[in-house]
Design brief:
The complex is a heterodimer of chains A (508) and B (92).
Chain A (H helix, E strand, L loop, with lengths): L6 E2 L6 H4 L4 E2 L3 E6 L5 H16 L3 E5 L4 H9 L5 H6 L3 E5 L7 E3 L6 H14 L3 E5 L2 H6 L3 H17 L3 E7 L13 H4 L2 E9 L5 E10 L9 E6 L2 E4 L15 E2 L4 H6 L4 E2 L3 E7 L4 H14 L4 E5 L4 H10 L4 H7 L2 E5 L7 H15 L3 E5 L1 H7 L2 H17 L3 E8 L11 H6 L2 E10 L2 E11 L9 E6 L3 E7 L3 E2 L7 E2 L23
Parallel strand pairs in A: 3-8, 3-9, 4-5, 4-7, 7-8, 15-19, 15-20, 16-17, 16-18, 18-19
Antiparallel strand pairs in A: 1-2, 9-10, 10-11, 11-12, 13-14, 20-21, 21-22, 22-23, 24-25
Helix pairs in contact in A: 13-15
Chain B lengths: L2 E9 L4 H17 L3 E8 L5 H5 L7 E6 L4 E4 L5 H8 L5
């Protein structure tokens, strides 16, 4: 049986997850990417975290930027590389271009380069090496054959010294060859690709992908990579465990009449989508749900994009709920942000961290539409699916809202990916009836359970919040927006009267 | 007469390339250089830290420190014409 390849923790958040433990130990891993894909930061972070968090000193070989530039640029991540150099924990091998050009007059090799690296390794007793980027070597020397041979020699030498190395390489374009000059063919069995693409919204999107780790398991899908003030982080998509806990126990939505329609509430760890036009009562529904949990002592996370905390507290207190008290006590974790504040991957991470830290049992997000507005379709779908998978894994009951653009009439009730990613769908709707705007609630689906299919009338009152009044009786076409009273007797032509004007289906 | 040329030759141990480079350089200097020069041969395997200063990666490497500008010639110096060109020497 083959010995399992051991790995070293990379120090890059999320990478150890997708790589099932980190960078292959005692090997060289090639990180190839187009320009601006984050190669330099990635390799520098591998060294920096190695030193500061895992006590493994490192050597940084720089071909493009000078050591001074690297020190200055990584300073913006709060890293003090200069200090580590003084402490003999980080050593540079400066291979950045100088003014003097190389004139070639006869046979040569890169013996000096190898000797300098070995010298630096001994000097700081390094365990990690980062080389950024080897492609530059090919531009400095005329004979690519020599460079290939010497890089192979370097990789073998590092292996013998049991050093873990990240070697970066340039990739000319996103699709096509793995690296310029085919570096991967002779230096490494382990290849990581760093992608840098424009999405359909013209935003730059970086991802990382492990192409191969010889003799070792890893994820094969791309994980989004973000560079922020702390360096690079990966945001791998959460993986739902197939062996999920079966639906068994029901929990209350906090609205008595709705629980009845759902035959006892929603299943624990299910996701419900509340969809409706602006002002139909989605936010109050989420408040019912969160307050119900809070009263039972269940911790929750409430993500609110539509209102500020003060507005929300005021809103809640008008229904007689002291939301602020629960937020202050830490029972409800309230996130009020502009949706633009974070990228999709970061939002997912923020929510995940809060759920895990607080062992939250309920999550409500109001509304998904705010995110849909700013994310690309693909990102949005990934967000919803990722969130849903995560919540299921952590046994969290959730409620998400969705704002439909039409006030009345027929709308595509839910986007396809929303409806498949959620277990339950509840529709809130305005109906114009008898010269009045009235409100309708209906349970469209509940996965794995019976539910009442009637169209119910509801109202939102200051004292009771959302209250189900009873079914709309004797009226048809409610869902189309042009409701009319069903004719009870035939032959009474005069009695045939429209109770309803044509619904004006306009955008808000 | 003052020293006009300051040269450094970097080698890595006693390799074929190292030995050839030293021989070739001595030959060039004997025949082609009328002025006074100083030459220092540095073995990077013995003194790797000395290679940092001139950012030497490939060896053998001949560096003309003086007169400015700094010139760098790599290889076993078997292409003598190139060496002379690189050192900016004209043999009369």
């Amino acid at each position: 049986m083959a010995k399992k390849l051991s790995k070293v923790i990379s120090g890059i958040p999320g990478f150890d997850e997708i790589s099932h433990g980190g960078i292959p130990k005692g090997r060289t891993t090639l990180a190839s990417g187009t320009s601006g894909s984050g190669k330099t930061v990635f390799s520098a972070q591998f060294l920096y975290k190695g030193i500061t968090e895992y006590g493994e000193n490192g050597v940084f070989v720089t071909f493009e930027e000078t050591p001074q530039d690297i020190i200055k640029n990584t300073n913006s991540f709060g890293w003090y590389v200069g200090k580590l150099v003084k402490e003999n924990k980080w050593a540079f091998v400066d291979a950045s271009p100088d003014e003097a050009d190389n004139l070639e007059a006869g046979k040569y090799d890169l013996g000096a380069f190898l000797a300098r690296i070995e010298y630096a390794i001994k000097k700081v007793k390094a365990k990690r090496v980062a080389i950024d980027s080897v492609s530059a070597l090919f531009t400095h020397y005329q004979d690519p054959g020599i460079i290939r041979r010497e890089l192979y020699r370097l990789a073998s030498r590092l292996k013998k010294l049991n050093l873990t190395c990240i070697m970066t390489a340039e990739r000319p374009i996103e699709e096509g060859q793995i690296s310029r000059y085919g570096v991967e063919e002779f230096v490494s069995d382990n290849v990581i690709l760093l992608h840098n693409r424009l999405n359909e919204r013209g935003e730059r999107e970086r991802t990382i992908e492990i192409l191969k780790f010889r003799g070792s398991a890893h994820d094969s899908e791309e994980a989004p990579l973000l560079v922020d003030k702390a360096g690079v982080s990966l945001y791998p998509r959460p993986k739902p465990k197939l062996r999920g806990k079966g639906f068994s126990q029901k929990v209350s939505t906090g609205i008595e009449g709705l629980d009845e329609l759902l035959c006892g509430g929603v299943y624990r760890n299910s996701t419900s989508l509340i969809t409706g036009a602006s002002g139909t009562g989605k936010t109050v529904t989420t408040l019912h749900f969160i307050m119900e949990g809070a009263k039972l002592g269940e911790k929750s996370v409430l993500i609110e994009f539509e209102e500020s905390p003060d507005q929300l507290y005021r809103n809640a207190s008008s229904f007689g709920w002291d939301l602020k008290q629960y937020v202050d006590k830490g029972i409800v974790q309230l996130i009020c942000h502009y949706p633009e504040d974070f990228r999709a991957e970061q939002y997912l991470k923020v929510i995940q961290d809060l759920v895990v830290e607080n062992k939250a049992k309920r999550v409500a997000l109001d509304s998904l539409s705010a995110l849909q507005r700013i994310y690309s379709e693909e990102k949005f779908r990934e967000f919803v699916i990722g969130l849903n998978a995560f919540l299921k894994m952590h046994d969290v009951t959730s409620l998400l809202t969705n704002t439909t653009s039409q006030l009345l009439g027929v709308t595509a009730i839910t986007e396809t990916h929303l409806s498949t990613a959620t277990d339950n769908i509840i529709i809130l709707k305005y109906v114009e009836l008898g010269g009045q705007m009235r409100r309708l609630l209906s349970v469209l689906k509940q996965r794995g359970s019976m539910h009442e299919k009637e169209l119910m009338e509801f109202e939102v009152t200051p004292t009771k919040g959302l209250q189900i009044l009873g079914p709309f009786e004797g009226i048809e076409n409610l869902m189309s927006g042009s409701a009319r009273k069903i004719q009870l007797k035939f032959g009474e032509e005069d009695a045939e009267r429209d109770f309803i004007a044509e619904a004006a289906a306009g955008r808000i | 007469m003052a020293v006009k040329y300051v040269l450094k030759l970097y080698v890595t141990g006693q390799t074929t390339n190292s030995i050839k480079a030293i021989e070739n350089l001595k030959d060039i200097l004997k025949n082609g250089l009328k002025d006074l020069y100083s030459l220092k041969v540095i073995d990077i395997l013995k003194n790797p830290q000395l290679a940092e200063e001139d950012k030497i990666l490939a060896t053998p490497a001949l560096v003309r420190v003086l007169p400015p500008p700094v010139r760098k010639i790599i290889g076993d110096l078997s292409d003598k014409e190139k060496v002379l060109l690189g050192l900016d020497l004209t043999t009369e």
